[in-house]
Amino acid sequence: PSSQAGHEKTLSGLMTFGNGASSVYGSGMLGLGMSFSMEELVIDNDMIGMMRYVAKGIEVNDCTLSLDAIREVGIANNFIGRVETMNNMDLVSQPLTLDRTMYDEWVGKGAKTDVDIAHERVVDILTNYEPTPIEFPDLVAAVIKKADDRHNGKE
Fold it and tell me: Interior CA angle at 13 toward 10 and 19, to 5°?
């Protein structure tokens, strides 16, 4: 995983979603698909979630426009410290691998990169994930047996 991979996947993913597709090819792949990274898969999943959010459209209303704050503060002034700004800051996305804290706080928390955070998520998933049981195991077993028989020439 690298910033180059992130840029490339974001640009291709935005084009995909921007044109109405519902899925993105290549999640977790690196180097034109010659390698795979579980950390990259976690990061890609985060980016795809943000792209899907954007593809839904951006809500425009009095709250998101903050017209009262614009009137109060005035054009070309500082809105960063405003309650409205802080309340709306995370409306766009809730990424799991991107840390949006200020630099000093980020360093104080250990200065973990997106890849570090993704790796921790991979380890957590591999250690703790409990799959949902298959709802119709007999049906699935029959489909698998039929495919095996066809493959082995027994059909």
Answer: 140
